[in-house]
Design a protein that fits this description.
four-stranded antiparallel sheet; P-loop_NTPase; ABC_transpr_LolD-like; binds adenosine-5'-triphosphate; MacB-like_ATP-bd; 243 residues; alpha/beta; transmembrane transporter activity
Length: 243
């Protein structure tokens, strides 16, 4: 019989009654959700429904106005700014629509940056594995400006994976890419969940992108109003239409 460790039973990220207000605006209005370890979840919703706010709160970039966010069982709201930064650096990987690579650094330096910032050394075997996975072995000495958009995003994914984070948050990572390049990026996120058991949270407007996930959460007016499991693009579109 397999014995589950306590660690394995704790959700990767757990939100409990999370609210986030900006003045009179309730960007998040009592959101509770537990993201299982190794799961791939997409978050969709109309413009202004709270997706970015959700991502910022769930990843510890921002503190909620009310409720709690736990990352790996740690209550993020109780941490000092410095500890919250450290927790993010050690446990979370981020991928953004605009890639956010450092222009003056080459691909390898960009990928290694989170380790350097955290004062950690490289594991050459893992660097090789990550670089091979994203298909950039022959581009390590190139600057971001010498890469296509898809290659830049693949470098950004490698940078997100280099610390072996427990959770990867991706905010519209395919928003600036053509469909075939977008597919490569989504496959990498899928592999992060399937091959290395990372928890992936993807914010997207795109039903085709959302269909790569195990389940899709729908946000409306700061609340989770629906969940679709085993999504297909058609099912996501139909559910989206009913929001
Ligand atoms: N820093 C801020 N100050 C004031 N209001 C904010 C701030 N950030 C977000 N909001 C408001 O909170 C609500 C949710 O915004 P949020 O950016 O989370 O939505 P979103 O679903 O990500 O939108 P989009 O798809 O357009 O990016 C909106 O009404 C927005 O105007």
């Amino acid at each position: 019989m397999t014995t589950m460790t306590a660690e394995a039973t704790v959700p990767a990220v757990c939100l409990d009654s999370v609210t986030r207000t900006y003045g009179d605006v309730r960007a998040l209005d009592g959101v509770s959700w537990a993201f299982p370890r190794g799961g791939f979840t997409a978050v969709m919703g109309p413009s202004g429904s709270g997706k970015s706010t959700f991502l910022h709160c769930a990843s510890g970039l921002d503190r909620p106005s009310g409720g709690t966010v736990q990352i790996g069982g740690v209550d993020v709201g109780r941490l000092s700014e410095a500890r919250r930064t450290r927790l993010r650096r050690e446990r979370i990987g981020f991928v953004f629509q605009s890639f956010n690579l450092v222009p003056s650094m080459d691909v390898e330096q960009n990928i290694m940056l989170p380790l350097v910032l955290g004062g950690r050394g490289a594991d050459p075997a893992w660097l090789d594995e990550v670089v091979r996975r994203v298909g950039l072995s022959d581009r390590l000495r190139h600057r971001p400006s010498e890469l296509s958009g898809g290659q830049q995003q693949r470098a950004a994914i490698a940078r997100a994976l280099i610390t072996r984070p427990e959770v990867v948050f991706a905010d519209e990572p395919t928003g600036a890419l053509d469909p075939s390049t977008a597919r490569d990026v989504l496959r990498l996120l899928r592999e992060a969940a399937d091959l290395t058991g990372q928890t992936v949270v993807l914010v997207t407007h795109d039903p085709v992108a959302a269909a790569w996930a195990d389940s899709v959460l729908f946000l409306s007016r700061g609340r989770i109003v629906d969940e679709l499991t085993a999504p297909t693009p058609a099912a996501v579109m139909a559910r989206w239409g009913s929001l």
